[in-house]
From TrEMBL:
Transmembrane segments: none annotated. Its cofactor is Zn(2+). It catalyses: Hydrolysis of DNA containing ring-opened 7-methylguanine residues, releasing 2,6-diamino-4-hydroxy-5-(N-methyl)formamidopyrimidine; 2'-deoxyribonucleotide-(2'-deoxyribose 5'-phosphate)-2'-deoxyribonucleotide-DNA = a 3'-end 2'-deoxyribonucleotide-(2,3-dehydro-2,3-deoxyribose 5'-phosphate)-DNA + a 5'-end 5'-phospho-2'-deoxyribonucleoside-DNA + H(+). This is DNA-formamidopyrimidine glycosylase. GO terms for molecular function: 8-oxo-7,8-dihydroguanine DNA N-glycosylase activity; class I DNA-(apurinic or apyrimidinic site) endonuclease activity; damaged DNA binding; zinc ion binding. The keyword ATP-binding does not apply. Keywords: DNA damage, DNA repair, DNA-binding, Glycosidase, Hydrolase, Lyase, Metal-binding, Multifunctional enzyme, Zinc, Zinc-finger. Belongs to the FPG family. Residues 2-116 form the Formamidopyrimidine-DNA glycosylase catalytic domain.
Amino acid sequence: MPELPEVETIKNDLLTKVIGSQIIEVSYTDGGEKLKYKFKQNLANLITGERIAGIERRAKYLYFHLSGGKILVVHLKMTGQILIRKSSTTSDQNTRIIFVLDDGREIRFTDRNDFGEIFLVEDVARIEDQLGPDPFEASYQQFENNLRSSKSGTIKEALLDQKIIAGVGNIYADEALYTAGINPFKSPKSLSENEIQRLLNSTKEVLNDGLTHRGTTIDTFRDTDGKPGSHQFHLLVYGKAGKPCKKCATKIVYTEIKGRRTHFCPTCQPKEQLSLF
Ligand SMILES: [Zn+2]
């Protein structure tokens, strides 16, 4: 699933490519017709003629601010992509909806698994209510308070909870816990202040690294040119089961936490910290 660095990469692409463009036609493909019923909206009637006035990312959501004041919200979920193509470019697989722009280009929304979301809202209050702070804006105190009041049994689940910190998914959660040296099974309530500070720092660090490499492409993530990211070549622990830890050479362990794929080093991320006394 695209996480913060992947969605931010797409946002940055969109900012340089489509601000000010007018949407002159919206068409659903045969495979995309179901989006109309899923969200009870026909975007062709609702946004044709609008200009794209601004683009924002919030957690894993993209907000397209339209000239009329409404906001087109996109969540890529598992396999969604946003591609910008000249209209003359051959069609892309799994295209669900096409926004034709006034300069001969198109924004194509593709989605192999069809979990993606695309809908128009007057304001984003109901989305924002479900989201905690962005990792780059979260203060230590906010992060600590959210972790201490978390109902999650493990810190891995807590990091995936968008109300605690917004934008982290499975890959970067594993990378952040490894970088901070924290066992994924630990209770969020049991973490020391030092561990919480390390975790906030490492979360920002791994997300920044992912952004530098224009995202992680393990399956379907692509930028708006259709190009994969390269952070998959820099991952430290995610997908490395059985391989030696880069810090201590212990074999990386694969497990599942509440059904989520989880990777960690049992030596660098011990369940119990050894007491110095
Ligand atoms: Zn290790």
